[in-house]
Amino acid sequence: MHELSIAESIVDIIHQYVEEKHLPLVHDVSVKVGALAGVVPDSLEFNFAAITADTPLQNARLRIVPVPFVIRCNECGATSEPGGPIAICPRCGGMATKTLSGTELQVAEIEVNEPEEAP
Ligand SMILES: [Zn+2]
Predict the structure, then answer these.
(1) What's the 32 CA to ligand 1 centre distance in angstroms?
(2) In angstroms, what is the span from residue 33 Cα to ligand 1's centroid?
(3) What number does CATH give the domain 2-112?
């Protein structure tokens, strides 16, 4: 399942950036998901919750940040959201376009509570 392997990669990334002893303090993990990334947000959240249950990351919550598909037209220079997966400029109909966003799938932010000071 696609979303399961993505959820596993996210857990790997968290482990890379957060010290083992601070893992239980992770509360929010923002993930940018482009409109064309082919990811079902609900399914990703579900899989993430499933694989972190009963682990030090059980308090971590996935926050999906949707990123729209945006193109820039090489012909007229317009920046637009085509509203579908086909990169045609809605303004002039040009097909020479550059994709500015919409394909990303990346962990943007890992929020960790301040560790409690030892008395
Ligand atoms: Zn155009």
Answers:
(1) 27
(2) 26
(3) 3.30.2320.80
Mean model confidence pLDDT for the chain: 94
Residues 6+ away with beta carbon under 8 Å from 30: 63, 65, 107, 108, 109, 110, 111
Parallel/antiparallel/unpaired status of strands 26-34 and 61-67: parallel
Is it the case that residue 75 has pLDDT exceeding 70? Answer: yes
pLDDT greater than 90 at residue 108: yes
Sheet strands (E) in 39-96: 61-67, 70-73, 79-80
CA of 34 to the centre of ligand 1 (A): 22
